[in-house]
Amino acid sequence: MPSFVPPPSSDGTIVAPKVHCEACRVEWSLPEITMAFQPIIDLDRSEVYAYEALVRPIGGGTAADVLGQITPEMRYAFDQLCRVTAIRNASRLGMDTLLSINFLPNAVYQPAACLRKTFEAAAKANFPLHHLMFEVTENEPARDVGHLQGIFAEYKRHGMITAIDDFGAGHSGLNMLADFQPDLLKIDMALTRAISHDPVRYEITKAIVGLCRTLHISVVAEGVETIEEAVTLRELGVRLFQGYLFARPMVDRLAGAPLDIIDTVRDAHARRLLESPVAPGAPTARPAAG
User: Fold this and answer.
1) pLDDT per residue over 143-167, tens digit each?
2) CATH assignment of 31-275, given 3.20.20.450, 3.40.50.150, 3.30.70.370, 3.30.160.250?
């Protein structure tokens, strides 16, 4: 985990950057939101590595119920609201792991200015900046690669962890990874789902994991729902998992590491290694074409 490098100050406290943009001055009537937290599990350590904050409407509902109310003009204010809400709620629940927050690259205008409320929320909640991880989704195309590189550089400068979310199911793919290398890459469920019996997904995911290993990027497998998927991904070298197999998102609660599921995956992994020492987990039959 990177060390915390706070912005310069005379007394060691967190100081927001003294820069602004026009978007900071516009006030919008935004929907009332809360956050559900879903854990990312470290299988090797049998513990929660991080919690991803997922927006939800107050009183119940889905993320789509909230996002459907957000216009393009409201994106900056909504992005800021999500950050502040996630940090505040995580602190209230006593979170002591990484907190992963999604951000929309086209909603961040001036990276230093847009971090102002993040610093203020972290200081007010006494939440350490080096426990923050920001995920950029591949599902939204970044209009300006240089701008996105600047955002990542600013986050890293302050000791925050950076991640690419939904890798393999978005607009940029390897082009995005070539332009900037995050600390962590999250492989989308479109690739991990049914990987235990899909040779094509297996080989693609194997190549992504190998590439990340070469680039010193940690990997999270998203959307894992079955023991078979988890075992196959573990054999490929993945140790960080997120999905319904381990825990569903929860509002006002933090799910712990499911030790029974972790033990089951480990035992199944060990058995498969003994049974197939040459190519563990690799599907043996390619689906018929047509």
Assistant:
1) 677 878 888 888 888 899 999 999 9
2) 3.20.20.450
